[in-house]
Amino acid sequence: MDLSRLTLGSKVVAGLGVLLLIDSFLHWQEVSFGPISAGVSMWHGLGVIVGLLLLAILAWEAAQIAGIKVSVGPLSPSMVTAALSALLVLFTLLKVLTNDYVHVWAWIGLLLTLGIAAGAWLGMKAAGESLADLKSSVASAASNAASTAKPAAAPAPATAPDTTAPVSTPGVDPLDTSS
Question: Is the pTM of the predicted complex or chain greater than 0.85?
Fold first, then answer.
């Protein structure tokens, strides 16, 4: 495990990710009644999604640091980090803006997620990639997934012999109704 080969973006993502993990256990919402205060951490409601995204980013970065190669279709490792960090920012912003009694730790958490996204962007730049590359890779992955998910066309049913036509018997007139 050689930490010197990490890009600045990976170092920023990992470092701020650990700080956000610590921050996630502090009161993101708090109500005070005189000397008594009560609050909840980030890990409530929509914060569970934020926490799971954060854990996914930290696990992904740990795999990159350990040199474990994981293939995610056409996405490069820096693109995966950028996509996860964009979702992290989105859900953290939703959590902070939709909660009541938001405390200072929630705002610090939002700033940390913005820093993680900036680190992911730096990682993409170091890899020579851009947001347009990410968009085209995601679009091609989605089209590949859609084409493989389509069921195969059902074979045409075999044509049955036409049973509505009259059967002719030799020596019998089919129009004769006298018998």
Answer: no
For the chain, give every domain's residue range: 3-138
Nearest alpha carbon to residue 106 among 19, 31, 27, 48 = 27
Instruction: Determine contact, residues 50/99, Cβ cutoff 8 Å.
Output: no
> What is the tens place of the pLDDT at every residue in 25-54?
999 999 999 999 999 999 999 999 999 999
109 contacts 54 by C-beta, under 8 angstroms: no
Write out the DSSP string of 36-90.
Answer: EEEEE-SSSTTHHHHHHHHHHHHHHHHHHHHT----BTTB-HHHHHHHHHHHHHH
Q: Specify the 3-state DSSP secondary structure of 133.
A: helix
